[in-house]
Amino acid sequence: MANERPEMLEQSATIYFGPWYRRSPYFEATRRAGCTAYDVYNHMLLPAYFDDPITEYWALLNDVTVWDVAVERTVEISGKDADRFVDTLTCRDLTKCAVKQGKYMIVTAPDGGIVNDPVLLHVGDNRWWLQLADSDAGLYALGVATQANMDVDVSYPHAYPMQVQGAKAAKVLEKLVGAAIYDLKYYWCDWFDIKDIPVLISRTGWTAVQGFEINLLDPDRGDDLWNAVFEAGDEFGIRAVAPVEARRIEAGIMNYNSDMTHEDTPLHIMGLEHLVEDQPQDYIGKRALEDLKARGVDRKLVGIEWEGNELPAELSWFWPVVRNGERVGRVTDAIWSPRLERNIGYAWVPIDLAGPGNALQVESEHGPLTVTTAAIPFVDARKEVPASDLRAS
Fold first, then answer.
1. Calpha distance 186→30 (Å, rounded)
2. Cβ atoms < 10 Å from Cβ of 67
3. What tens digit of pLDDT does each residue of 35-73 get?
4. Which of 6, 73, 198, 208 is deepest in the core (most CB within 10 A)?
5. Is 232 helix (H, G, I), strand (E, B) or coil?
């Protein structure tokens, strides 16, 4: 059965580096930097382990870190009708999204389900980039375009993001592109050159701390860009790390395919309801989401937390949430928060258990747990840290 827990994989299992898995322009650099484990994401290899995750967590908060996230596959939508077409793909109202502005976007299915949750960048007139979470949303957009009767082109440009994140990220970028980096507002982007390498830099990231994503436009210059960033960051203790799961969960950032899938809508997820924006124009899934908003949801993805021993590792599979001996939900994330000094995570629960402060019984490989529902995000609900004045850091 689909909901049964499979046998836990041996911790020594490895991924075969077959040619069918795409490698980022930074792949060899990550190996030299000490990466020892990779994941597969968007049919590409994602660096997944360098050092102790707690060490990397504090490096992110206090210094500066680099993540190879070229796996955030970029889909470009261009053409005379690109603006109108992109607006039909999402429940967000993009009619006032300016050139060089970005949005956290939900790509919606006809039933209101979440096809993907990319960062959307309006990179030029009639030109948009969707930087995808793990999915085939680019093929979805291509399919929609074939039936849309619009002048629009869907393509995969050469754009390979590297995240430079942390308290000293702006100082590193200043050395590379000058003081203009301080004029870049949260969720905006602009074009720069780094040692004659053309890049697009956005003030975004999967951390909700201060940070940037540098999009390399020439895949043959991966080593050159990597070396330039590390040279600039040497005095600030720069280091390559894997995605910092504890920080993104603290910040209420979701992971597509584990926390949410196409079977869920933004209305089902605490903190994402506001992305279903009232607007006069039509979009895919509009009627379904309006009906669901009026009717109300039957379940919710919420935060959970509990005291006790530090979790030894992240989840290897979903933990059942049980009530009166019956499974009523599942835990999708659970991790130790070094700053909060407790275990936190996310869980799907029936709507009557979705409010903060409800006790849940959870079955885990570490034994039965009693956890408490909590609001998402766990820290900095107004995103004041990533949006704060870069010059003050």
1. 27
2. 28
3. 999 999 999 999 999 999 999 999 999 999 999 999 999
4. 73
5. helix
CATH number of the domain at 242, please.
3.30.1360.120
Q: How many CB atoms lie within 10 A of CB 20?
A: 8
**186-224 pLDDT, tens per residue?**
999 999 999 999 999 999 999 999 999 999 999 999 999
One-letter amino acid at 313 equals A
Inter-residue long-range contacts of 389-392, CB under 8 Å, 24+ positions, other chains counted: 390/170, 390/181, 390/182, 390/184, 390/210, 391/170, 391/182
**Rounded Cα distance, 345 and 353, in Å:** 16
Residue 222 and residue 23 in contact, taking contact as beta carbons nearer than 8 Å: no
Burial class (CB in 10 A: 0-12, 13-18, 19+), 38: buried
pTM of the entire predicted model: 0.94
Q: Can you give the residue range of the structural domain that contains 132?
A: 74-142
What are the φ and ψ backbone dihedral angles of 363, each rounded to 5 degrees?
-100, 120
Q: What is the CATH number of the domain that holds 94?
A: 3.30.70.1400
Among 215, 219, 193, which Cα is nearest to 202's? 215
In a domain? residue 17: no
User: Is beta strand 239-240 parallel, antiparallel or unpaired with respect to 65-68?
Assistant: parallel
For residues 54 and 256, give the distance between their C-alpha atoms in angstroms, rounded to a whole number.
23
Please indicate, yes or no, if residue 226 is contained in any of the structural domains: yes
Element (H, E) at 138: helix 137-147
For strand 127-131 and strand 119-124, is the pairing parallel, antiparallel, or unpaired? antiparallel
Residues 40 and 175 in one domain: yes
**Which tokens in the block code for residue 309?**
């021993």
Give me the DSSP letters along 57-108: HHHHHHS-EEEE-TTS-EEEEESTTHHHHHHHTBSS--TT--TTBEEE--EE
